[in-house]
Amino acid sequence: MLGQFTLKKAINFLVTTMKNLMSRFPEIRELQSIVAVHQTGSFTKAALALGTNQSTLSYLIERLRQRLDDPLFVRVGNRMEPTPYAERLARSAESILEVVSAELQGIEQFDPYTTRREFRIVLTEVGAITLLPKIVKRLNQDAPHASLAPLHAKSLDLEAALSEGRADIAVGTYNELKGDQNLFQQLLLIRDYVLIVREDHPTIGDDISTGTLASTPQVANAVASDSYRWMEDHLASQGLGLNVALTLEHAVAIPMLVGASDFIALVSRELYDIFRVAARVREVRLPFELPQAHIRQHWHPRVHHDPAVTFLRKLVRDVAQATEAQPWLPGAISIKGTP
Q: So what's the architecture of 193-284 in CATH?
């Protein structure tokens, strides 16, 4: 029992000592007051320079006097002259305030042309092919000293990467982020999906029936798009299923594989436009209309007002709009999970 009482007294002593030591450190307002009185030699003029009243300034100085056990300033004629302690404190305070002011200005001001910041963007494989080259080109123009670190969506916990600052924004259609109320989102572009076959497919012409669509072997992307999921559900409602012969992790390989086989595949129109000639594939009309995919950029509220991330979001949106060439594209920002 005695040992516990002694331990408790020791802990209380340490806490009290730490509080006393910490209380000796002046606050920013107190440092500003010391510097102002030191420079003007007057409480009245110092209060005017700080944009406050004399009673508030006197209170700050008096609080410091008691904590530091030093009068700090004494009247000599018409001036308030500093004690040797206040003289040293004022010089140190000036240096501290200059550093704080410079750091705050650096945070508040962002110059794209001089920044050497590394921007981190999460992209899908298709986004890396279609958007990334244009983003890099625009970044080289607007922020020539900045660098870009593209991140692959498959290798990340997106919400954690955005909230922890390991990624600035994530661009794409991410099912795992749907309904996440912690993230902001902005619509960038709308993507169509098309069914493709090789140019000289022996049995499929310009159109395909629902039955043929269900029975023909096809190549699927390991990360299914919303359009693909809708097609799968639509066929299931008719008692049909998809004949998936092969599932690929790499979306860009799908057109080439289709062009070298009798498989069919659902791909984004962007991917089809890029590889149509090289892969020798063509579009086939579906027996129904597919929903479009909405490509958005996502970011965490902690960087919503960050000038560097704001610059990046605008740059990506401008690139996406130029790519889509749709002036009607809405630019409203909303919380993820809302329409």
A: 3-Layer(aba) Sandwich (3.40)
Model confidence over 68-88: pLDDT tens digits?
Answer: 888 989 999 889 999 998 898
252-286 burial by CB neighbour count: b if 16+ within 10 A, else e?
eebbebbbebbbbbbbbbbbbebbbeebebbebeb
Residue range 2-46, pLDDT digits in tens: 455 566 665 555 545 444 444 557 788 888 888 999 999 999 998
Instruction: Kindly list the distances between the CA atom of residue 288 and the CA atoms of 272, 302, 310, in Å, as whole numbers in the listed order.
Output: 19, 42, 40
- Extract the tokens encoding 302: 């902690």
Fold of the 118-187+302-335 domain: D-Maltodextrin-Binding Protein; domain 2 (3.40.190)
Give CA torsion, residues 79, 83, 85, 88, to 10 deg.
Answer: 40
- Judged on CB neighbours under 10 Å (0-12, 13-18, 19+), 83 is middle
For residue 36, give Cα distances in angstroms to 24, 27, 192, 259, 326: 20, 14, 65, 77, 57
Class of domain 2-107: mainly alpha
Same fold, 118-187+302-335 and 193-284: yes
43: number of CA atoms within 13 Å, CB side?
14
Per DSSP, the residues of 210-237 read: HHHHHHS-EEEESS--HHHHHHHHHHHT
β-sheet bridge partners, residue 175 = none
Query: How far apart, in whole angstroms, are the C-alpha atoms of residue 33 and residue 319?
Result: 50
Per-residue tokens: 216 = 């023909």
Q: Partners of 190 in the beta sheet?
A: 294
- Domains of the chain, by residue range, sit at 2-107, 118-187+302-335, 193-284
Report the C-alpha gap between 270 and 260 in whole angstroms.
Answer: 20
